[in-house]
Specification:
Elements (H helix, E strand, L loop, with lengths): L1 E2 L5 E2 L4 H7 L5 H16 L4 H20 L4 H23 L1 E2 H4 L3 H10 L8 H14 L2 E2 L5 E2 L5 E7 L7 E4 L1 E3 L11 E10 L19 H24 L4 E4 L5 H10 L2 E3 L4 H11 L3 E2 L17 E11 L2 E9 L5 E7 L2 H24 L1 E4 L3 H15 L5 H12 L1 H9 L4 H17 L9 E4 L4 E4 H4 L2 E3 H19 L12 H4 L1
Parallel strand pairs: 6-15, 9-10, 9-12, 10-11
Antiparallel strand pairs: 1-2, 3-16, 4-5, 7-15, 8-14, 9-13, 13-14, 16-19, 17-18
Length: 499
Amino acid sequence: MLVDDIGDVTITNDGATILKMLEVEHPAAKILVELAELQDQEVGDGTTSVVIIAAELLRRANDLVRNKIHPTSIISGYRLAMRESCKFVEQHLARSIESLGKDTLLNAAKTSMSSKNIGSDPDFFAAMVVDAVLAIKTIDDTGSYKYPIKSVNILKAHGKSAHESRLIKGYGINITRAAQGMPKYVANAKIALLDVNLQKEKMKMGVQILVKDPLELERIRAKELDITRDRIKLLLDAGANVILTTKGIDDMALKYFVEAGAIACRRVPKEDLKRIARCSGGKLISSFADMEGNESFDSACLGAAGFVGEERVGDDDILVVGDTKESKSATLLLRGANDMMLDEMDRALHDSLCIVQRTLESNTVVAGGGAVEAALSIYLEMLATTLGSREQLAIAEFAEALLVIPKVLAVNAAKDATDLVAKLRAYHHTAQTNPAKKHLSGFGLDLVNGVVRNNIEEGVLEPAMSKIKSIQFATEAAITILRIDDLIKLEKEDEEEAA
């Protein structure tokens, strides 16, 4: 539970969120905070693991430095261990999705959310996440499939239970129609996306008009209204029947939209408008001015969607833009008891969405539950004994450091970490030394029953990319801090002393 300086409470077990909210002062610790953020951006999950591995690498490097091993030797040892680890994961531990069957995506999503508050009902949420990611499948210029996670919008609404959460096909935004007289549903929608104020036009600051005749004032006021009316006419003449703007719409202007049977919404977040523009093939317009100095609106700037409709959810209304022209979109509507629970569900689902996306794009998975770390530990220990240089010590320490992940997992599950990790290492040693027992490389921890089992068969899976990136990032962060010889801190001079 984190409480900030204005009293806002955040309850989370997401590593990146915790580190982001801590006001870390120490420069070396800031590197670890940035490390978690980088893992969050690149992979989306595994933020806690990457910081734990980096911290353990630093702790062991510190012991080596105290034993008179030069940091340069440690750095080159760590670099070699990192390269060999990534190679070993790709060549020996990674499995393709096709070889494991269609449930692979569901299993990867379940593994990601197992430690979160939605982990108590993994089947329901995993199916929702996988459906959402598959709904936004697009093909890029090179012909490969992409899954832009930003096309999945997550909306939160109070009330009901988490089980009432659902997937909406279409892009949902938390806004309502600007007037009750407008239709609730428009088929074959042509969407105008504006960053323009549709309120009564006012004189710009610093403009002075000298009026001799009071009647002229009325004509100025009428013209101000006419400017807005003409702009609305341009939109409606171009064929727009849904108007979304980031700024305001006057009550006077709403009348024209109601008469035309169009939906208009004001104060739409700009981020949402950009995403709708991407999905619908429209353009965000920030001015009506054209090259001739007049005002015009090109119908090519309109986005196209199968429908735009308003739905009632709890106490609020949401607007759904569905069946868009350019690319598909999806909305996860979350229900829950309070804001803190909904925020944590949002973070958990975002991590799962990213994991499913990475699994689909990289097409390879590895066993979870400490299997990869235990296998790498055994492999690197064997590798270290083949080297006759000082790097041998650094690689051996790197191998030991990786075991921190299965140890932490076992401790968190209230199991005997020493016993479980020893069993796990024995399985992986057999898998790497006996070709007939190669299938044991998929064995990891079962933390419910406190035993070692085949996690590939049990469906505890993670994208291979997640493991490779976390080892790379953790090693790079540890090396960055190891390179530092001295910390020089400049204190600010007191103004009084300076005076």
